[in-house]
Amino acid sequence: MQRRLCGRRVHPIGLGCMNLSWAYGDPPSREGCLRLLNEALDLGYDHLDTANIYGKGANEELLANAVMHRRDEFLLASKTGIVVDGPRRGVDCSPAAIAESLDASLRRLGTDHIDLFYMHRFDPKVPVADSVGAMIRAMEAGKIGAYGVSEWSSDHIRQAHAVHPMAAVQTEYSLWTRNVELGVLQATRELGIALVAFSPVARGALGGRLKDPSSLAENDLRRSHPRFSAENWPRNLALLDRFDALASSAGVKPAQLALAWLLAQSAHVHAIPGTTDLGHLHENFAAPTCEVPQAIIHQAGELINQQTVSGHRYPEVMRGTIDTEDFV
């Protein structure tokens, strides 16, 4: 059941830690976060994913406080490149910025090394070889074990990999977001790079519980995403209701069917669903062991895909930062 990532074997379901600090409404209490992270490790999660911008560093500090005393039990991934500093906003993958950001992440995390360090977005202002060079120097210094990229196009992935082999590409991939199928899925498979899917349960839409986005907190980023808008949501909800029924017919939870479909796409695919709910934590981890008939997997893909979903995956203001191939 384990899959290869950064030269080791890990469970194909990792834990995306972002929403423990930021993005989907108010985060849980500190005590709740500490409990969830430790229960994840107790359960067998061995791949934790964070980033320097999640809660402006708060998410990395949370991991330091919660689980760094169990550092040898998990693969630690973090990211650099997105700048959110008052009026300073954008992408900076210059060698100096990468080096400075890495040292800051190590301090917040309370560790001397990060196993997998991603460039969070593609920076067109910096030559790919220069950015990768900074990652090589970080590996030589023992500060990171391997590097990866997030939301990069297949062409730029190939360019970076030619400078120095990368370990992973992280991008959004789920039943209703198929952009990687335009090039990244094939490129990573050919090059032997792990594909780590974030938002594999479609930002909660495939979790079987979200029925009315207007009930989301005012500071929930999904309120700005087109697929959750008043215009598009009714059509998407009709698909989701049918999806929930399909999962029920297979005797699994909707999120488990979504994850089973994703892992079935290729043996090099990993998923990092996030959750603040202990029940969902257990359900997600069990997804690879659920016996879902291939016919159901196929039906899920036919029901929810790029052609049937209404709305773009990102609002216009965010689309300009995404390098991954897009559908016209």
UniProtKB/TrEMBL annotation:
Record's keyword annotation contains Protein biosynthesis: no
UniProt KW Oxidoreductase keyword: yes
Xref: Pfam families: Aldo_ket_red
Chain ranges of the NADP-dependent oxidoreductase domain: 12-288
Keywords assigned: Oxidoreductase
Taxonomic superkingdom: Bacteria
Coiled-coil spans in chain: none
InterPro entries found in the cross-reference section: AKR (IPR020471), Aldo-Keto_reductase (IPR050791), NAD(P)_OxRdtase_dom_sf (IPR036812), NADP_OxRdtase_dom (IPR023210)
Name of the protein: Aldo/keto reductase
Species annotation: Pelagerythrobacter marensis
